[in-house]
Amino acid sequence: MDAARKALTAGTAEAARPVWADGHDGAALREFLRKRGCDGMDAVMVTMRVVGCGLPEAQAMFFAAPCRADELRFHDAVTEGLEKSQGDG
Questions:
Q1: How far is residue 71 from each of residues 17, 22, 40, 41, 88, measured CA to CA in Å?
Q2: Which residues contact 52 (CB under 8 A, 6 or more apart)?
Q3: Confidence band of 65 (pLDDT split at 50, 70, 90)
Q4: What confidence score (pLDDT) does residue 50 get?
Q5: Does 17 or 59 have the greater pLDDT score?
Q6: How far apart are CA 70 and CA 27, in angstroms?
Q7: Local structure of 40: helix, strand or coil
Q8: What is the pTM of this model?
Q9: Cα–Cα dist 71/6, whole Å
Q10: What is the pLDDT of residue 39?
Q11: Can you tell me the distance from the alpha carbon of 32 to that of 15, in angstroms, rounded to the nearest whole number?
């Protein structure tokens, strides 16, 4: 991670701490990060800093969120289609 990105995620984590402290609400934290344009791996990195958890927990908290259900269904359908297009042998 380059220095600018590291500084950005550190600043976002500091800004997000009060959101997390106000009830340890994962949905509120995700929404706060989304509104700031922080998503994907940056959101996972910020979540790790704010929540004080490891990578698996942060990924589950962010990527398994109910608000991402449509994305997950789309991803699964595309993956399944690609697998079928490769044939079973």
A1: 27, 28, 12, 16, 26
A2: none
A3: low
A4: 96
A5: 17
A6: 16
A7: helix
A8: 0.70
A9: 27
A10: 85
A11: 9
Where on the phi/psi map is residue 11: left (φ > 0), alpha (ψ -120 to 50), or beta?
A: alpha
Helices (H), ranges, the chain? 3-21, 26-35, 40-47, 55-63, 69-86
Tokens of 13: 């984590």
Q: Which two tokens stand for residue 81?
A: 């289609």
Section 32-54 average pLDDT: 92
Q: How far apart, in whole angstroms, are the C-alpha atoms of residue 86 and residue 62? A: 31
- Cα distances (Å, whole numbers) of residue 41 to 84, 87, 88: 29, 32, 33
Q: Which tokens in the block code for residue 37?
A: 């344009």
